[in-house]
Design goal:
homohexamer, 280 residues, Arginase, Chain A, 8 helices
Chain lengths: 280, 280, 280, 280, 280, 280
C-alpha cells in the first residue's frame, strides 16, 4: 500500500546476485557552459517510473535480468581529482566482485575514472565513444582534467587506436588532426559499426554514451547542445549491436536536467538506459 | 473592429448547417504521470489563430467546409464514469442529428465514450488508433477505466479484430500478447495502411489520434512522452489517406499544455486538427 | 560513500520508536484549476536536502525527535471515494499504534479522510484550518467530495463550531454566511489565535495547513493562487503557538510542484514542515 | 452542459443595460524592454474563471452590477498613432452612450488615447496614476509616443497639476524635476490619498493603474519590473477609496503574460480588476 | 586574464580589413503573434561562445576569414518605416565601402530594407528565401509593411521572377497563386537548388534565411512555428551550396529568444551563422 | 547609431580616472545545490540596461561617479584554490592602484579571496556580511573551501569579533555556537546597524552581500533559497547607511540566473548594485 521507491525502475536485485551494478556519479565540476549534470542520476531514478520495464524492441524485461542500483556516490565539490579518485575506487570494487559497472554521470569527465579502474583489470581494453564533441584537447583553460579533454586522457591510458568515436561534429581543428593517428573517429553520424565489431572481436570493451551525440531536437537538456546529431533510434540500434560484444562496463553522461523544460530529455535517457541494460 | 473569438479558427458554421461538430472533452482524471490534458481544447482554440485556415497540402480551406465548434463539455471531477456518460450522451446527440463528432481530449480514455455512442448507431464499426502505448491492460492500479486500459475496453465493445493500432512502442509484454488475437497492431511505425483500407472498405470507421504517437522532439507536451515516435508529416499523410474512408467520428487526445514551454506542441496540434478536418 | 536517500530530511526513525508518522497522500483528482499537487510529497522529500535539520527559530533539531517517514500511499485514480478510504484506513492504523499522523497532500480534500479516522478515536476533536478559500460549498459541479467542499464535509463530521479558519479571502457569499453559524472564520489574516487556544484548551486538535493561505509572492506553486495572503513568518509563528496544544494529527496540502518554476515554493514547504514537526 | 466562455468572469451584461464597458487594447508596440502586454486582455479573460465573482473585501458580487465585456480592439501593428486613434474612437463611443469605459492594456501608452476621448466630454478631468515609473520624458529614442512619455503627453492634454502619481520609484532626474511643477508625485509609496480626494472633490476623474507599481515579488510579469513596490493590499485599498470619487473611466496596463511562469501575476490582475469594477 | 567579449565568436576583425560586416537589426514591431525577435542579435553574440570557431563540415575556421561585428542598430520603436530607413542607410554604407552585409534580425521585415539598399548597387539582384511562410500578402491588418508582406514588397522592388522560395508550408490561397507568376516557390522542402544556381549564374544574389523554415522540433524559438519543416542539415547544405554563388549580402531572421526554454534554438542559430559566414 | 554595450550601465569610466573598479568573479565550483551563479556578472551587465542610472532614493546618478567595469575574470574550473588565487591577485592590483574593488560573484566563496587581498593592505579590516546562512562550518563534505565555510575562513583571516552578520536564518547548531565567540551575528533580520557603525568607526570595512539574505519572494534566483528573509528596501537602506563608513571594497554574490524564470531577481540585483555603488 505504501511506496518509497529509490532505485531505477526494475533494478531491484540485491548486490550479491546482481550481474550489473548501476550507480550515479553526480559530478559536473569542470562544466564550462551549462552546469547541472550532477542532477541526472537522481532525476532519472525518479522519472524512470514513467517508462515500462519491458522493451518491445528487444522483447526483454528489466525484471528478468539482475541489476542492483547502488545509489549515488557522495562526491566532493571543488576538486575534480578527488571526485575521480572516488569513482575509480568504487568501479574497482564492482569489478573485483565480478560484476559489470554501469555508471550514470555527471559530466563526461567521469568516464576517465571508470576506464582507469577497468584498464587495471582488462589490459587490452577498447572504448567506444558516442559524442558530439571530440573531447581531444590536451588542456582547457589550463586544466588537464576537463570534460573537453576526457577522451584525450582516456587515449593516453589505453594507447593509440583503442578508441572508436561516432557522431562527432564539434572540436578544434587540432583535435580532428589528433584523432587521425590516435582514434577511429567517424564524423557526424553513426555508421560502419562493423569495423569496430571486427577489430574488437571478443576483447573487453567499455561503452560510453555522451548523450549530447543525440540531436538537440530529441535531447535538449545537455551542457553544450550541438545541432545536427543522431537520433534516438540510431543510438538505440547501436547499443543493441554493440551490446553483443564483451562489454565490461558502460556509462551514459551529460544529461543536464535543469534545461529539460518539457521533461522529454530525462524520459529519453531513462528509456535508453533500459535498452542499454537489456542489450548487454 | 472588436474581436471576441471563441471557436477554433475557421469553424464558424452554425449547428444546423454543420456537417461536423467539434467539441472539447476536458477530462484527465485517470492520468497517472503528468496531468493537464484537460486544458487542451481551450488552449487549442486560443492558439489556433496562429495558423492559417488554408492547407497547402490539401489545397482546401476550413472556411469552405462546415464545422460548428460547440465548445467544451462541463465535465465533473472525481468520477471517471460520470464524465464518460456525459461525453457519450453528447456524442449520441450529434450522431442523432446526422453530423460527425470531432472530439478534442482530454486523456485517451474519453475515446471509449465516443466509441460507445457510435457503436449504437453503426454496429459494424472499426477503429483506427495511433498511439505510443498499447493501452491494452485489463486494469491499472485496480481500475478498469483508465488511460492505460482504454483500447482494451474499446476492444470489448467492438469485438476482436476491429481495431488497427499504429506507432505502438510501449506496453507490458502481456499487452502485446493480447494484441495478437484482438487487434491489428503495428509496432513503432505507421506503415501498410492499405491493409486497413482494404479490410474496412466502406464500413464506418472511427479515427483516434493519441498525439503521443508523435516523437517527443516534435510533440513534447503530452502526459507520457515516449522517444522513437512518428513524425508530423507521417501522421498528416495518414490522416489524408484515412480521411477518404467512411469516417463517422474522430478525436485527438493527450495534448498536455502545461508541458509546452515553447508552444510548438499546441501549434502542431492545431495544424493537425486543420488537416484532419479537411481530410474527412 | 553511497547515498540513496528516500525519506524527508532528518526523519530517519523506525516505525516502532517513532512518535510521529509522516506519509504522503498524492491525490489531486478533484482539482479543477491547476492539477499537480500529487507530486508534492515526492518532490518535498527530494528537495528537503536543501534545508538544515536544525531550526534556529526553535533551537531544536529534527535529528533529536522521532519521526518515521512511511513513504506515499499508492492511491487509485478516477475515484475520490476510494482514495479517501485508503487514507482513512492508514491514518487509523497510525492512531491505533499510538502515534501522530502527519500527512503531506495532495489536494485539500485528503484532510477529510484523516479527520474521519481521528474523530473515531477522539470524539471531541477540534480542527484549525489555514486556507485562502472557505471550502464550505455544499457541492461543486454536482460533486459532494471536492477540494471546494472539504471543510463543509469536515464540519458535518465534527458538528458546528468545532473548526477555526484563518486567512480566508475567497469564496461565494453563501460560504461566508454558512461560516457564521458553523465555524469560527477569520477573514484575510491570522490573528487572535488565543481565542482558539482558550476554547480548545487541552482537547484534541487537528491542524490543517492549506498552503495557499500564504501569499502567492512567497508561495506561487499552488492550484488556485489568491493574492493578499499571509506570510511564511506569520504561518511559522502560528504553528509554533498551536503546536503547544494537544495536537493529535496534522497535514499540509496544496503544494503544486509543476508551477514552481524557481523552486522556492517547494523549499518553503520543506522548511515549514520542519518547523511544524518541531513545534508539535 | 457546454461552455464557451469568452468574457471576463461575471461581466455578462449586454451592452444596452451595462453601466460599465470593459474592453481590451492589446497594444505593446513601443515597449522597449520585454514585449508581451498585448496578450494581457485575452489571458485575463481565460484565467478569470480561477477567481470568484464575490468580493469578501467589499461584500459585493460582479453578478450584481452591470458590466459588458466588449472583447478586444483589433489594433494595427507597426504604427502607434493608428492604434491610439482606434482606442480613442472606441472610448468616445462608450462615453457617448453614457457608459464608463474600463480598459485592459496593453502597454501604458494606451492610456493617452482614453484620456483624450474623455477630456473631450469632461473638460475638468483629473487623472490618478499608479506607476513605478514617472513616464514623464519628453521623448524616448526620438519618439514622442512611448510608454516612457505617456504621462507627459497626458499632462499636456490636461494642463498642469491635474495628475496625481503614486508609487513612482524610477525615472531620469529631469522627470522628477518636471513633476514638481506639473503633477502631484508621491515617490515610492501610496499615501495621503486624502489630498487627491480633497482637491478633486466631485470632479470627474480617470484612474490608471500601471500594474508595475506593484512589487515584483507579487507581480513579476511586467515589461520593466522595479524592486521596492507597493503591495496588492495597498493597491486594493486605494482602488476602494478612490472608487468613491466621480470615476468616469479607468484602466489597468502592463501585465505581460509571457513572463508569468507561475501564473500568479495574471491571477492577481484578475482579482484586482474585480475589486476595481466593484469599487467604482 | 579579463574578458569582456562583445562580438560574435571569431568575428574580431576591424572594419577596415573586414570582407564581411555583421550587424544586428533588433526590430520586431510588426510581429503579430509572439514578439521577441528583437533580442536575437544580442543573445546570439552571448551564446556564440558555446560553439567552436572551426567547422568540421567545411574544414574552415572563423578566425581565418575577416568578419567585423558592428553591433546592433539603435532602432526606434513604434514606427516600422523609420526602422527600415536606418537599416537601409547602414546597409548602404557597408556596400559603399565594398563589404558584404550580414544582418541578424529581428523579424523578417528587416530584409526589405537590406534588399532596397543592395538593389541600388546591384540592379540585376536575385533573392533566395528560405521560409515557412509565403510572406506574399499585399497587406496585413491594413498595413503594407509587415512580416507577412515582406516578400511581396521585395518582389515589387526586384520585379517578377527574381526570387526563389524554399520550404514554404503556410499562407493564404491567394499568396500561392501570386507566387505562380512572381516567384519560384518550392512548397514544403528544399530541393532542386540547381535550378536557382543555373538561372542566377554569376549574377548578384541576396540570401535570406527566415529560420522558421526549420522544423519546430529543431527550432522552436520563433514567432510563428509551423510543423513539417526542413532540418538543420538540409539548411546547412543549402547554405554551403549557395555560398558559392556571387553572394552580395545575406541575413538570418525570426529567432525569438524568449521562447527558447532549453536554449537549443539560439545555439543552432549560432552554428548556422558560422556555417553561413564560412560558406560565402 | 550602433550599440555594442559591454559594461554595467553607467560604469563607463576608464581605468585611470576610476574611483571604483567593478569586476566579475564567475565561479560556482563548490555550489552543492543549484549551480549557475557563474552566469551572474554577464547577465547583470546585459540586463542593467533595463534600469535607470539615476537613483531617486539617493538623488545621485551613476554617470556622475567614476566606475570602471573591468569585465570578468577568466577563472579555471575544477579547482577552487586556483580560482581564488586569481581573484586575490586581481583585487590586489586594484588596491595597489588606489581604487576600490567591487566584485560580482559567483558563489559566496569568492569573498574569501577579496578579503585576503584587502587584509594585506588594511590590517584592521572589518567585514559586514548579509546572508541567509551562517557559512561558519569548518568543512563541508570534507572540503575546507566551500560556500558553506567561507565566513569561517574569513574569520580565521581577520581574527575574532571582526565580522558582523545580519539576516542569518539557517545553519547547523554548532555554527550558531561558533558565532557567539567569533562574530556579531543577528538572526533573521537586519537591525541595530548602529552597533556596527559605532564599533567600526572610521576603520576600513568590507561589505559582502550574499543576496540570498533577501526573501525568496523578492529574490528567487539563488542557489539555496531560504524563506523568511529581509526585503529589498531593508537591504537598500542598510547599504545606504553603511556606505558612509570607510568602505574599502564590497561584493554581491549568489545571484543564480538559471532559476530566474521571470527575470525579476536579475533586475533587483542590478538595481541594488546601482544603489550600492552610489552609496559608497
Amino acid at each position: 500500500m505504501l511506496s518509497k521507491k529509490n532505485c531505477f525502475i526494475g533494478c531491484e536485485s540485491d548486490y550479491q546476485s546482481a550481474r550489473m551494478v548501476l550507480f550515479g556519479a553526480p559530478f559536473d565540476g569542470t562544466t564550462t557552459y551549462r552546469p547541472g549534470a550532477r542532477f541526472a542520476p537522481k532525476r532519472m531514478r525518479e522519472e524512470s517510473y514513467g517508462i515500462e520495464t519491458y522493451s518491445p524492441y528487444l522483447n526483454k524485461d528489466l525484471e528478468d535480468i539482475n541489476v542492483f542500483d547502488a545509489g549515488d556516490l557522495d562526491l566532493p565539490f571543488g576538486s575534480a581529482q578527488k571526485a575521480l579518485d572516488q569513482i575509480q575506487e568504487f568501479t574497482h570494487k564492482i569489478l573485483s566482485d565480478g560484476k559489470i559497472p554501469v555508471m550514470i554521470g555527471g559530466e563526461h569527465l567521469v568516464t576517465l575514472a571508470a576506464v582507469k579502474a577497468i584498464k587495471r583489470k582488462y589490459d587490452d581494453l577498447y572504448v567506444i565513444d558516442f559524442d558530439a564533441h571530440a573531447d581531444l584537447r590536451d588542456e582547457y583553460l589550463g586544466e588537464k582534467l576537463s570534460h573537453s579533454t576526457v577522451i584525450r586522457r582516456v587515449c593516453e591510458v589505453l594507447g593509440p587506436k583503442k578508441i572508436f568515436q561516432y557522431g562527432v561534429r564539434s572540436g578544434e581543428k587540432s583535435e580532428f588532426e589528433y584523432a587521425q593517428d590516435n582514434t577511429y573517429l567517424t564524423k557526424f553520424v553513426i555508421k560502419d559499426l562493423e569495423q569496430a565489431v571486427n577489430i574488437i572481436g571478443d576483447k573487453p570493451v567499455y561503452l560510453t554514451f555522451d548523450l549530447d551525440c543525440l540531436d538537440p531536437s530529441e535531447f535538449a537538456a545537455t551542457g553544450t547542445p550541438e545541432a545536427g546529431g543522431v537520433s534516438f533510434e540510431e543510438l538505440r540500434q547501436a547499443a543493441a549491436t554493440l551490446g553483443k560484444l564483451n562489454v565490461v562496463g558502460c556509462d551514459i553522461t551529460e544529461l543536464c536536467p535543469p534545461y529539460d523544460a518539457s521533461g522529454v530529455s530525462i524520459a529519453l535517457a531513462c528509456k535508453f538506459l533500459r535498452e542499454l541494460l537489456l542489450s548487454i
